[in-house]
Task: structure prediction
Amino acid sequence: MASNIFNNEIIPTKLVKKITIKSINSLHRNYTGELKQKLELFYIESGLVNYSLKKINSLNWAKVVEAIRDLSNLNYQPAYETIATKLDHRKKLVQKEAFIGVILLRGLDELIKFRNIDIYVDDWTQSNILYVVKRDKMNAPEDIGLALESNNESIVLLGARIIQYFQLWQYIPNLEKWTKNNPDLKVTDKINDIINQLKNTH
Result:
C-alpha cells in the first residue's frame, strides 16, 4: 500500500509532510469518486492527518489556517468540532477559514446553523464558498430563507447569492422584503441586483 511505502521508505520530515499534503490536495481537487476517497484514506493511513491536527492548535495563526484547509479539503470529518471552535479565534482570517471549513465538511446546512455568527464574510470568502458549492455539487438547504433573517448582513448577502446560484425564484419576495426593510445598508444594492437577475431568468 502507498501508505506503507510512505511510512517505511520515506523519511517523513516536516518539509516532506508539507509537500506531500500539498500534492494530495492538488490531486484531490481534480479527482472524483473512488480515486478521491483513496487520497482521503492515504491522508489518514500515512499519518499525515496527525501533522495537520497538531498544527490546528498552533499559536501561529498561519499554521492554523493551513491545517483547517488541509483537514476540510481532504474531508477529515473527525476534525469538524475542532474546526468549529476556530470560528471564535482571535484572528479574523482563521474565523473565515473555519467558516469555509465547516461548510466543506458538512455542507450548506452549516450556513443556516451559524447564520448569526459575528464574522464579516467578505466577497473573497463568499467566492470561495460558492466555488466549493459548485465543485462539490452541494445541495441548497431546504431552509435557505433563514439566512435572510440573519443579523449579519454579509450572511444575508451570501444567502442571496446561494439563492441566485440555485435559481430559487420562490425567494424573490423574501429578498424584496429584506431590501425594503434595509434600504440603507451597503449590501442592499447587491441584493437588488440579484433580485433583478433572478427576475430576468425566471
User: Anything to note?
Assistant: The chain has a mean pLDDT of 92.
